[in-house]
Design brief:
Number of strands: 10
Largest sheet: 8 strands, mixed
Radius of gyration: 30 Å
Structural class: alpha/beta
Number of helices: 17
Distance between the termini: 37 Å
Number of domains: 3
Shape: elongated
Strand content: 5-15%
Length: 530
């Protein structure tokens, strides 16, 4: 599941699935159903793609190859009308419609319609599922088959549960069967040659083919769509998820989790308000753990509901909570009596060991809340400042970091939440040619931007820093991202310092190690920070 959160991996999966399915359908047509099933499995992974344009491209590619296979199976040359009543083509069409329904059931009707609309393009390459001859009949046939697929998309997306989805699939199959039946009659008979004055004879002539097509469509679509939806519900059960239908999308939430009907962030905002009211009652570890849990929840919601009204409120409240922790020196854990104690100003009377970062390097300090990575970075900045270096703090509230280190003369760079404005502020700060810079902005950027946007911003910033010759450290909670996203972000930095918290003698001890440093020899062993 984690691999699928990498949208580039999903794109590669789609690009590999399309030619593979085409090759199977052409070389081994008897296994065409397997090729369609392969497309269906790949389609489920596309919901993890955050970029809308990339997601639409994936759905279009998969929709095209799926309807292309079904269209080829339904293609019957003129003079071979007896093949129109074979059940196998309808089975393949049922798999394709089931895939379109799955996309809608899994990722909302908009994406389902994108998938189904690719069928109109696919029909152009198959001369229409029926060799209708004239351009007018071809257009009617293409629009008819596309409209029938849209029905499965819409009926599936409206369903609140698998039971309703199966009932809706039955209704959609009837409506689609009527459309297919009319299209087949259009192929078999010339409207101008039919005698509409004799209704009995007309009914006897048309009812047989029409009912036959309706029956085959109903049987194939209800069976395949039903199997697909029930299989999907089984997957949700296995992964302890539940499906929540929003007006324009589908949310997958943890089983038992209550989400506000009007806004999914409502419950999170309520808990944050309670967190602020009861903050004085928390100890360091409890406050850090509670905040980390809410940040993870916010991050998961931000993946699927980036436009909810309360999202911005929840984000701002999380920023305030983080600033409160930093301002009150609650980033660290309890300190044993034998360990050096911080003074009232927040400075250490005896500094712990700080690993010397090579000059001009851009380094990431990663670890969970409470691992003292912020304090470590600020310790490096304080040491550089005392050594006569020009230093800068880039943060949403840099005065909090200044108060923490207890030293004046630091360039304070207050940035805005907009990533473009932030990049501009950093460029202006570099005009002062600082020697050392401390960045505490990723805790806001990670939940609010897709990894490709964030990696582009960090790569551009790192390039600016290297050009100016400044040494820089960034801090980040590594639990906020997936392993694949973490690997993408880590690749931008020259070095990675990993922090953790371990229990020893009844106290929480922070430690760190050099996880990676490009083109440098380093000791990977853990070092005690307290």
């Amino acid at each position: 599941m984690k691999l699928l959160e990498n949208q580039y991996a999903v794109l590669v999966l789609c690009l590999l699935t399309v030619p593979a399915a085409a090759a199977i359908a052409i070389t081994w047509p008897q296994y065409a159903a397997g090729a369609m099933a392969l497309v269906a499995v790949a389609s489920l992974s596309v919901r993890f793609v955050q970029n809308r344009a990339l997601k639409a491209l994936c759905y279009m590619l998969l929709g095209f190859i799926s309807f292309w296979g079904a269209g080829n199976a339904l293609f019957v040359p003129l003079g071979m009308e007896v093949q129109l009543f074979s059940f196998l083509p309808f089975l393949l069409l049922g798999i394709t419609n089931a895939t379109a329904a799955l996309v809608a059931y899994n990722d909302g009707y908009i994406n389902g319609l994108i998938f189904a609309s690719a069928g109109l393009i696919a029909i152009l390459f198959t001369k229409g599922p029926l060799d209708t001859g004239g351009a007018d009949r071809f257009l009617i046939t293409a629009m008819g088959f596309t409209a029938a697929s849209f029905l499965f998309v819409m009926f599936a997306s409206w369903a609140k549960s698998a039971a309703w989805a199966l009932y809706n699939a039955f209704k959609a199959s009837i409506a689609a069967g009527v459309i297919y039946g009319l299209l087949y009659l259009l192929r078999l008979y010339d409207v101008n040659a039919l005698n509409f004055s004799n209704f009995g004879a007309l009914y006897a002539k048309l009812s047989g083919p029409f009912i036959n097509v309706l029956w085959m469509s109903l049987l194939a679509n209800v069976f395949i769509v039903g199997i697909a939806l029930l299989g999907y519900e089984l997957l949700l059960y296995v992964f302890a998820l539940r499906r929540s239908v929003a007006p324009d999308r589908v949310l997958l939430m943890k089983a038992g989790e209550v989400v506000g009907e009007e806004d999914p962030y409502a419950q999170l905002v309520t808990r944050l308000e309670k967190f602020f009211k009861e903050f004085s009652n928390y100890d360091v570890g409890e406050a850090a753990e509670t905040l980390a849990g809410m940040e993870k929840e916010y991050y998961e919601l931000a993946r699927v509901r980036a436009d909810a009204p309360l999202r911005q409120n929840a984000g701002k409240m999380l920023m305030e909570a983080r600033s409160l922790l930093l301002g009150l020196k609650l980033e660290g854990e309890k300190v044993p009596a034998a360990a050096p104690q911080p003074s009232k100003a927040g400075r250490l009377e005896k500094k712990p060991e700080l690993w010397a970062i090579p000059k001009g390097s851009v380094v990431l300090l990663e670890g969970p809340i409470g691992s003292r990575k912020e304090e470590f970075g600020l310790g490096l900045l304080a040491a550089a400042l005392k050594g006569g270096s020009k230093c800068a703090v880039v943060s949403f509230e840099p005065e909090k970091e200044e108060e923490y280190i207890g030293e004046k003369g630091v360039q304070l760079v207050k940035v805005e939440q907009n990533i473009n404005d932030m990049a501009l502020s950093i460029s202006h700060a570099l005009e002062a040619n600082p020697d050392f810079m401390f960045f505490n902005v990723l805790y806001w950027l990670i939940p609010n931007h897709p990894v490709q946007t964030l990696s582009g911003f960090l790569a551009s910033t790192a390039k600016k820093l290297k050009k100016s010759g400044a040494t820089a450290v960034f801090v980040m909670e590594n639990e906020m991202v997936s392993p694949q996203e973490l690997s993408t972000l880590e690749s931008i930095f020259d070095g990675i310092l990993e922090f953790s918290v371990a229990e020893k003698d009844g106290y929480s001890h922070s430690r760190y190690r050099v996880k990676e440093f490009k083109f440098k020899k380093f000791d990977p062993d853990w070092r005690e920070y307290w």
